[in-house]
Design a protein that fits this description.
Layout: E1 6-7, H1 8-16, E2 23-27, E3 30-33, H2 57-61, E4 64-66, E5 75-79, H3 88-98, H4 103-109, H5 117-129, E6 131-135
Length: 136
């Protein structure tokens, strides 16, 4: 999908741990990662997270996100390859993390205008491969 967005506090936590700086500010206090072909620079060769112990809120809640489009709120889950391996407990944990995601953070995460056009098209096509379903 690319790299997640980070709040300034999350970015500072990563940098204080000594990880390389791939961040650039896209909106007031929200940062994106410079990616190569839409791949998170902290993704290791074995597809595990290189900053797992301090990953961002958007990574913690994946594949569950708040549904800000509906008046009643709620959550949606992305039907990605990992979804079928998640237990109800895993999904509930992700939903709990998703409850902390602000509308501003999610809006910026879904706005591809800050990345190069070639990567924006790639990320958008990856996102549209996933179906979503409403969580009850």
């Amino acid at each position: 999908m690319g790299g997640p967005n980070f709040t300034e506090k999350e970015m500072q936590r990563v940098l204080k741990k000594g990880y390389k700086n791939y961040f650039f500010e896209v909106r007031d206090g929200i940062y994106e990662l410079k990616t190569k072909k839409g791949i998170c620079p902290y993704l290791k060769k074995d597809n595990s997270c290189g900053i797992h112990d301090i990953k961002s809120l958007l990574c913690l809640c994946w594949p569950v996100f708040p549904d800000f489009d509906k008046r009643k709120g709620g959550y949606v889950i992305m039907e990605c390859p990992v979804t079928k391996f998640l237990s109800k407990k895993d999904i509930e944990k992700s939903r709990k993390e998703a409850s902390r995601v602000s509308k501003k953070l999610l809006d910026v995460a879904l706005d591809y205008s800050t990345v190069p056009k070639s990567e924006a098209k790639l990320l958008e096509s990856r996102l549209h491969r996933f179906k979503t379903r409403k969580l009850r």
